[in-house]
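Tokens in:
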């Protein structure tokens, strides 16, 4: 049987883990980067959506970017659906880049085949 102290300690551990999940410390919120490419995969999953894009650099090499977005629930309220993007779509993506320079970031806004997606940044 758990004591009250043990239960409180367990609750604090789980609360810390839940809070750590929502950290966006890996992204540089002071900078924005815009990339253009083709959608490889759109993952409509909890707790956050993921957008995988192939971007061709000036050297002709294709680099895959991973962009983390909001929760499906919040994006649905903005008008998104699991079909908002499909593999092969042409994407212009603005994101807060990764602090370590790896190819990825946190979603800010995007256009898909020339049409803007609703975003909080556009409001």
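Residues out:
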């Amino acid at each position: 049987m758990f004591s009250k102290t043990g239960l409180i300690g367990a609750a604090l551990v789980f609360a810390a883990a839940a809070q750590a999940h929502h950290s966006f410390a890996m992204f540089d919120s002071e900078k924005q980067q815009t990339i253009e490419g083709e959608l490889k995969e759109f993952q409509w999953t909890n707790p956050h959506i993921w957008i995988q894009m192939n971007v061709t650099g000036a050297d002709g090499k294709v680099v895959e970017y991973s962009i983390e977005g909001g929760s499906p629930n919040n994006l649905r309220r903005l008008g998104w659906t699991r079909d908002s993007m499909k593999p092969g779509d042409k994407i212009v993506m603005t994101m807060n880049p990764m602090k370590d320079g790896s190819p990825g970031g946190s979603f800010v806004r995007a256009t898909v085949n020339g049409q803007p997606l609703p975003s909080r940044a556009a409001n």
